[in-house]
Amino acid sequence: MTPPRGDGAGPSISVVAADAERWDDLQAVFGPRGEPVRCQCQYFKCDNAAWRGTGPQERREALRADPAGLLAYLDGEPVGWCALDRRTAYPRLRTSRVVWSGRAEDRGDDEVWCVTCFVTRVGHRRRGVSHALARAAVEHARARGASAVEGYPIVVGPGERVATGDLYVGTSGVFTAAGFTEVSRPTPRRAVMRVELR
To answer: Which of 8, 79, 136, 176 could form a Cys-Cys staple with 124, CB 3.0–4.6 A?
Structure first.
């Protein structure tokens, strides 16, 4: 999907769609412990009742059945993931105050895609992995007929430090660099950012 960089300007990052053959690579990105292993990027795919009724193993099997997202490789090693799917594939987003505050858009629009989560493998952070994933997400969705792509990042001010655990939704800077523009600011710390594709 995204060719590796070989221009000497930085690390060679390539991005591809996740699939069953890349399952071990995806789990390597999540690592052996921590929130990615517990969640398996299923939080937004579940409503509250479904989330409470499942554990890590059930979530892992749900992701294995539908690994909707992208994997980043740094010089051939799996180092990053972003969850990417149609907005309608994420039941939790239908009722999210962050997503809908001040917006009257059709919540059932199947042509709007969204990026809900990023994971960068321990030891590979601050190397442009999230930036590469956000750029690739736009092209991946465009190739599948999306009318727009959204993200719901945290807003980080200049010089501000944020706990790593809060960065799973991405930062506004990552989305801006990938061509997204802010369409609403439902809270001082969260933005809705979007790329119109047609």
So the answer is: 79
101 within domain boundaries: yes
Q: Are 152 and 190 in contact (CB under 8 A)?
A: yes
Contact 123, 4 (CB under 8 A): no
Predicted model pTM: 0.91
Per-residue model confidence as pLDDT tens digits over 81-131: 999 999 999 999 999 999 999 898 999 999 999 999 999 998 888 788 999
6: in domain: no
Angle at CA of residue 160, ends 155 and 165, nearest 5°: 65
Q: Is residue 109 part of a domain?
A: yes
Task: Return the sign of the alpha-carbon dihedral for residues 92, 153, 69, 34.
Answer: negative
* Cα–chain center distance at 175: 10
**Within-domain flag for 155:** yes
Torsion angle (degrees, nearest 10) of CA 169, 174, 177, 183: 40
Q: For residue 86, list its beta bridge partners.
A: 113
Q: How many domains does the chain have?
A: 1
